[in-house]
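Worked example 2:
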Amino acid sequence: MSESGLLAHEAAAGNAAAFGTLVRQHQSKLRGFLLRMTRGNHALADDLAQETFLEAFRKIAQFGTGSFFGWLCAIAYSRYLMEARKRKLEPLDEADDIAADAPETEFTSAVKLDVEKAMAQLAPPQRAALTLCFALGFSNEEAAAALDMPLGTLKSHVNRGRKKLAVLLDAWRNRAVS
């Protein structure tokens, strides 16, 4: 069992310090995942991360085996979807443009900004699948479990998301060259 898994079982047995250690270990990655899901809305990502950890604390006894971070991502994705439904009149698509005023003087920062803007164009399941599989290094099986979707569906989201990203990035590159 992983260190996080052991800490989760200690937390389930009433060790609050063990849960605090889990939060410190995983909060940055979880916020990064949620930041991508919320299309750069830092306040919403932080709120969802806090709600995720609160729910994880309440349900820590339900954690079994496997990746603790994957379990957290499953909770976070569920929280994100609930928030998206609540904002039906104000879709998450209207989130602030990611770093719109960021200087594009360095090539790497410009490329990173382009990728983030392109990711923001993807449907939430595609964004979540790509973030888990590529940015966070989840296997397809782990990502499918975290997102509570069949493996084939996850693979479809990854493939469609990659194709759409390629088209978007190619279009931006062609505009930059013109």
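Residues 89-105 have pLDDT under 50 and may be disordered. The chain has two domains: 1-96, 99-178.
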